[in-house]
Design goal:
Cytochrome Bc1 Complex, Chain D, domain 2; mainly alpha; 12 helices
């Protein structure tokens, strides 16, 4: 039986589709590159931008949280601590857990890619060689009274004698390179952990004028105990009602009848 020209064309078209696939059909756009699933992403820049940049800054600094692009911080914390904090977060703070095993969205391999990327991109091998920095975590309780004296020695020049900052006149009289704001502000202390206060005291804030534990004020670098004590004093400045101009009293006391 002889097929009509139109039917023959239809048969040829069907055979072509079966051999070459639908993507070869006239007028059909070609498929683009395959988009990886979220758990398949391993690129450090992509993982950092999606998960860390909002708090730690686009380039690892000048964010609300600790500067990760600080080789002293990376060396002080160490690889194991960085892996644990990234995976499990820090309870009681705004640092969340990112590992799937802890309720996050990242695989163990992605956690490793993040930490390896931080160390490779921002770390400096041997930066603390020959130094004797205080330990990353406190090994005991601090003394707030001693801490106030430590603060006066190492910190008051920029933060003011009571930690509430200095006026331009005070900063000039103290010959401070930079005058920082209040470090005992209740809202600030409510948001920051003791470990964050300790970390910042030890490694400083690069690019912001805050020196590390070696400082340039006293005749010697801060000891581990001095760091622990000054953090204890700062922590003692926390208030029960941060963010309010005065403590909230029960309603019956506010409006007695």
């Amino acid at each position: 039986m002889r097929l009509s020209p139109l039917l023959s064309l239809a048969v040829v078209s069907l055979l072509s589709l079966s051999i070459f696939g639908c993507d070869s059909a006239p007028g059909r756009p070609k498929a683009g590159p395959e988009v990886p699933r979220p758990e398949q992403v391993q690129d450090f820049a992509t993982l950092y931008k999606q998960n860390c940049a909002a708090c730690h800054g686009e380039n690892g600094r000048q964010g609300a949280a600790v500067s990760l692009a600080n080789p002293e911080y990376l060396a002080l914390a160490g690889e194991d601590t960085l892996l644990q904090v990234t995976a499990k977060g820090v309870p009681g703070t705004l640092m969340p857990a990112f590992a799937q095993s802890a309720g996050g969205m990242l695989t163990d391999r992605q956690i490793r890619s993040l930490v390896d990327g931080m160390i490779k991109q921002w770390g400096k091998p041997g930066i603390l060689a020959g130094q004797n920095p205080p330990a990353y975590a406190a090994t005991g309780a601090g003394d707030p009274q001693q801490g106030q004296q430590v603060f006066a020695t190492y910190c008051a020049r920029c933060h003011g004698a009571d930690g509430r900052g200095m006026t331009a006149k005070d900063a000039g009289a103290a010959k401070a390179e930079k005058s920082f704001g209040s470090i005992v502000d209740p809202s600030y202390l409510a948001l920051v952990s003791d470990q964050s206060l300790r970390t910042t005291t030890i490694v400083g804030v690069p690019g912001e004028g805050m020196p590390d534990w070696r400082n340039d004020v006293a005749s010697h670098a801060m000891t581990d105990k001095e760091v622990t004590d000054v953090v204890a004093w700062l922590a003692s400045q926390r208030t029960p009602y941060p963010g309010q101009p005065y403590p909230t009293a029960p309603a019956a006391q506010q409006h007695p009848h």
